[in-house]
Design goal:
Elements lengths: L2 E5 L4 H10 L6 E3 L6 E5 L12 E6 L1 H10 L1 H18 L1 E2 L1 E5 L3 H13 L6 E2 L3 H14 L4 E9 L2 E8 L12 E5 L3 E10 L1 E2 L6 E2 L4 E4 L1 E4 L2 E5 L3 E17 L1 E19 L2 E4 L8 E11 L2 E17 L2 H19 L5 E13 L2 E13 L1 E5 L4 H9 L1
Parallel strand pairs: 6-9
Antiparallel strand pairs: 1-3, 1-4, 2-3, 5-7, 8-9, 10-14, 10-24, 11-13, 11-17, 12-14, 15-16, 17-23, 18-19, 18-21, 20-21, 22-23
Length: 381
């Protein structure tokens, strides 16, 4: 049952007798200098003289409705904001087609418009978007290679890849496979042409590895476009410098949600961040012109300053040196050996120079010109 707290004038005995005479249960008494407060059932208010009692507060459902009534304007604003946000999230205010070719952009924009994807329209479901993409690609098989429609808040971002039909490139009539750098040949396969090097041969840059000139008994028989793959042993020097002291971010696991809004080059947050050190990740949930609304995730971390030992510093330097080297190499390359040439320490920095022996592809096909004299000899034969 609902309850109510009231204050009665006079002494305690007078107030208690007053309530008991009217058959009213006293549930609780709170003593106060301004007058004691009595908790009774709300239904018993009808038994009291309204001109001598003071209602202090309601409890239960009536208290809830009273709070709602007192804060009705604030609650209405929140509900209206939620309704508007939900409504806006179902509406597209911008459609952006990303492609360097203007003709392709215009084609896709027209097709999307015809399928109901246009500014200030309701969003399509996932299945509808898939059907629209398939329909556009089926209608323009020679123009569109790939199409993607990304739902980005109140915006559709459309990425498209144009289909470019190219004629097969014919190999030159005569070409050789040459070395791209000084190295020692490890292995090789000639798909077309004659291999003119063997394993363990030292070759200089631009030396012929696979010849497109086919010879037999020292006589030229024909010319082809040489093709194949040759692996060689090459060498690299890599220099790396790293600080002895370094800082780590240790995330505490504490996260806070926030809302940020951007207008032009100005960015503000709704709530203040109370973490000392933190990382923020943002996701755009609404944009209109220069205005954008973001949902933020704030993660707290504690900075920890660490100091490498000599062994740890060398290990970290070698790790970074390998990563730096692999950027230059392709996926078929392999580090054969690693040797530290020099290590220096100064001003809290360690510098390491490393020598690498690497297995990698050294072959590259280049077009060649037939020697006119050899052509004459070939015809004379």
């Amino acid at each position: 049952m609902n309850k109510v707290s009231i204050r009665l004038p006079g002494y305690d005995r007078y107030a208690i007798n007053y309530l008991r005479k009217r058959d009213i249960d006293i549930l609780n008494i709170t003593y106060s200098e301004e007058g004691n407060i009595y908790t009774i059932y709300s239904a018993d208010l009808e038994k009291l003289d309204s001109d001598i009692i003071e209602i202090v507060s309601y409890k239960g459902i009536k208290k809830f409705f009273k709070i709602v009534k007192m804060n009705s304007h604030f609650l209405f604003s929140i509900i209206l904001s939620i309704v508007l946000m939900v409504a806006f999230s179902k509406v597209v205010v911008q459609v952006e087609v990303i492609h360097s070719n203007k003709d392709v952009r215009v084609l896709i924009e027209d097709e999307l418009y015809d399928h109901g994807i246009k500014p200030f329209s309701f969003k399509k479901s996932f299945d509808e978007l898939q059907d629209i993409k398939k329909k556009i690609k089926d209608d323009y098989p020679e123009n569109i290679e790939w199409l993607e429609i990304v739902d980005d808040g109140m915006k559709y971002t459309v990425r498209v890849e144009e289909r470019i039909i190219t004629k097969p490139v014919q190999d030159p009539q005569y070409c050789n496979v040459v070395s791209t750098k000084d190295s020692i040949v490890l292995s090789g396969v000639a798909k077309k042409g004659q291999m003119v090097v063997a394993p363990n041969d030292f070759v200089k840059k631009d030396s012929i590895l696979i010849s497109g000139k086919i010879t037999f008994n020292e006589a030229t028989k024909s010319y082809v476009c040489g093709d194949g793959e040759v692996f060689g042993n090459t060498w690299y020097r890599v220099a790396i410098s790293i600080p002895i002291e370094h800082t780590n971010k240790n995330f505490t696991g504490k996260k806070k949600g926030n809302v940020g809004f951007e207008f032009g080059s100005t960015y503000n947050r709704v709530f203040k961040i109370h973490f000392d050190d933190y990382d923020v990740s943002k996701k755009k949930i609404f944009s209109l012109g220069k205005f954008a609304l973001y949902k933020e995730t704030v993660e707290e971390y504690e900075e920890e300053t660490l100091k490498y030992s000599e062994e740890e510093a060398l290990e970290e330097a070698l790790k970074q040196a390998r990563e730096k080297l692999m950027i230059k190499l392709d996926s078929q390359s392999e580090i054969l050996s690693e040797n530290v040439l020099q290590t220096d320490s100064y001003d809290s920095i360690i510098s390491v120079e490393v020598f690498y022996s690497v297995k990698e592809i050294i072959s590259n096909r280049v077009e060649a010109q037939v020697d006119p004299e050899e052509m004459i000899e070939e015809k004379a034969e």
